[in-house]
């Protein structure tokens, strides 16, 4: 095994181009487990810790450019306003020690359906910026990023640089089922983001299909139901029948398996419950925000 | 490969390090510092917790090469680290001043036995270590080093943590004896003493 320690992003791309089998390691919270347990013996380890721009984030007009190695702790501490869903998801990652090391780049690189960040990224909407020495950088829409169980759209010579995440324009929520709060791999997880500017709702489901997914049929149903009822304008409580239908469609989008953490039927059930609850929380928050806004105008 | 990094305030060097080796293995097997415990090797238990540039991490998940040029504090250096922090204030790296820190030899020989018959007496302990002894927070002791490092870091950034803060900060450290109540007592005790001292 060789340990490659590029001091800059350019050096890292050159190393990845020269050694496409090199395994990138940043926080190490996935890679080191596999090495410690002898599940993986990569020829090259590509250490990304010395590349400072991967640890940075920039808050722009419409998006947050989040470096691939920004630890979850930093997301929780600094980006709660811009990325509320991801901040909530970050807080459910393992433990403080793990959150101090792990970042979104690792979740995307591993592309496990159980990665905690995925449902929040899907709901918020984002693009993953990847780069290779040969072809430069490109942006992969999150909807096209997950290609299979622990597979993503990355080419062998590419590295994940950052994620361009839409800044929240409305309330976001995240929910995760596990046996306890800390140190839990999700039995299943659900993220939701209201986008009042476009009058749409986006969702993300984790650990309940071969890849992280959106519940698109549920989103379409809810978008038209909210539109028809004038809910975005009148801010009324979403009727129980709409919430129920939304939950059932989310549950139906899931395609889970039985495993040690839970059964497929439990996961489908739990996704529906989380969908209904998180919709209620976000909508309540949207309504109260609207109320305050109106008072301010008056 | 060779790896150089600061351990408990002193520059150290490890040779013949395998590229896939963890920081934990280097500390225990190459530097003779077995205070950080090796249990789950997957970041679940927190018994290998050390400070890496001041940040609590599981040393089993840090590749040795990633520690190159960085500063590590282990439980063996916790007493010296806490003392230096108290004297110089706010140094989170453990490397304030060239004379500071704990030598490898001193760290290897570190023991809570001390010179008196009473555990901990006559030995230099960090406040959080003393509190663990006084509160009876040590049972089999295997989780203790990781808990001490995590608890010390909590008290460094939060002078009077709530119970929820303590639970959160220690949520990555498992105790299989399930002595959590006494551990919480110990952290409360250390926080109270810290408050009195100010």
From TrEMBL, chain A:
Keywords: FAD, Flavoprotein, Oxidoreductase. InterPro entries: CO_DH_flav_C, CO_DH_flav_C_dom_sf, Diverse_Substr_Oxidored, FAD-bd_PCMH, FAD-bd_PCMH-like_sf, FAD-bd_PCMH_sub1, FAD-bd_PCMH_sub2, Mopterin_DH_FAD-bd. Transmembrane segments: none annotated. Residues 1-170 form the FAD-binding PCMH-type domain. The keyword Nucleotide-binding does not apply. It comes from the Bacteria. Pfam families: CO_deh_flav_C (PF03450), FAD_binding_5 (PF00941). The keyword Cell division does not apply. PANTHER family: XANTHINE DEHYDROGENASE SUBUNIT C-RELATED. This is FAD binding domain-containing protein. It comes from Streptomyces cavernicola.
From TrEMBL, chain B:
SUPFAM superfamilies: 2Fe-2S ferredoxin-like (SSF54292), CO dehydrogenase ISP C-domain like (SSF47741). Keywords: 2Fe-2S, Iron, Iron-sulfur, Metal-binding, Oxidoreductase. The keyword Iron applies. It comes from the Bacteria. Residues 1-78 form the 2Fe-2S ferredoxin-type domain. Pfam families: Fer2 (PF00111), Fer2_2 (PF01799). InterPro entries: 2Fe-2S-bd, 2Fe-2S-bd_dom_sf, 2Fe-2S_ferredoxin-like_sf, 2Fe-2S_ferredoxin-type, 2Fe2S_fd_BS, Beta-grasp_dom_sf, Diverse_Oxidoreductases. This is (2Fe-2S)-binding protein.
